[in-house]
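ENTRY TYPE: paired fold submission
RECORD: A
CONTENT: sequence, then C-alpha cells
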Amino acid sequence: MMSWKATSGRESVMRSLLVVGAVALALSVPALRRATAQTAPLHYGDPPVVLVGTLATEVFYGPPSYGENPATDAKEKPFILTLNSPVDVKAGADDQAEKNVKKVTLVFDPAEVSMKPFLGKKVQVKGTLFHSFNGHHHTPVLIDVQKIHATEN
C-alpha cells in the first residue's frame, strides 16, 4: 500500500510539472518566433525603407580632434534612432554590409522638419539608407529622412 501512495504522489507531481512545462512552452513559442524571425536584409539607396524605434540624441566629440582633446573639441548631438529590432544591411556598390545594426543616425533638413517633438518617443521613419563616410557620422548606417511620425508599436 505504501508503494502505491508513493507512486501516486510521484505521478501527481510529474503531471503537475508536465502541465506547467506545457503551459510555459505554449506561452514562450510566440515570443521565440518573434525573437528569431529573420527579416530580409535591408539595402542602401532607393527604394526607401521604414524603420521603427525610439528617437534620442547622443553627444559625440567633433572637430578639431574628435575626442582626442575633449576640452577644445566641438560637441555634436545627432538624432539617433534605436531600433526595436536589429537589422542587417546588404553591401552596395560603394558601401559595405553591416550586420546587427541597432542604431541609425537621422539625416534631415531642419528647415523642413523638427525632430524635437519626437524625442524619447517610438517613431516610424521612412527614408533611404546610406553608409557613414566622414567623422560627423556617428553610426555606421544613416537614414535620409523622408517622413517621420510617432507610433504605438
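RECORD: B
CONTENT: sequence, then C-alpha cells
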Amino acid sequence: MWCSVSAGLELVAALNLLAAMVWIGGLFAIEAATLAARATLAPLQQVEFFRGLGHRYGLLSCSALLVFAVTGLLLIGAPASWSAEEAALAGLTALVAALTGAAVAAARVTQRLAWESATGAATDADTGRRRDSWRRLASWLRMLIAAASLAALGMARL
C-alpha cells in the first residue's frame, strides 16, 4: 500500500473541508452576485447573467456538494455504526441536497418568468407578481441551504 490508513483519512478530511469551503463560500458569493445584478442590470440582462452564472456555478457547486457528502460519509463509516450525531449530520447533508434541488427549480421558474416579463412574452398581468414570489422563495431556500450547510459543517468539526 502506498500510504497509511491515517494518511488516507487525512486526505479525505482535507477534501471534505475544501469541498465545504467551496460550497459555503459559493453560497455567499451567489448572494452577493444576486444583489449586485438586481441593482445594476436591466431585467433581460439579469436573465442572461443568471443563466450563465447558473450553468457555470452549477457544475462547481454540485461537485463540491457531492465531494462533501461522499467524504463525510467515508469519515463517519458504515450506517450501522453511526452515533446519533453522525446520523443527524447525514440527515442534514440530505436536507441540503433536497433544498438545493428545490432552489434550482425555483430559480429556473424565476428566470422563465423574468424572461417573459422582460420580452413582453408574458401571458398575464400577474407574471411580475409571480416572478417576485418565486424570487423570494429562491432567496429563502438559499438562506435555509446556508443555515443547514453551516450546521452540518459545525457538527462535522465537533
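NOTES ON RECORD B: DSSP finds four helices and no strands in the chain. Residues 5-156 form one domain.
STATUS: closed
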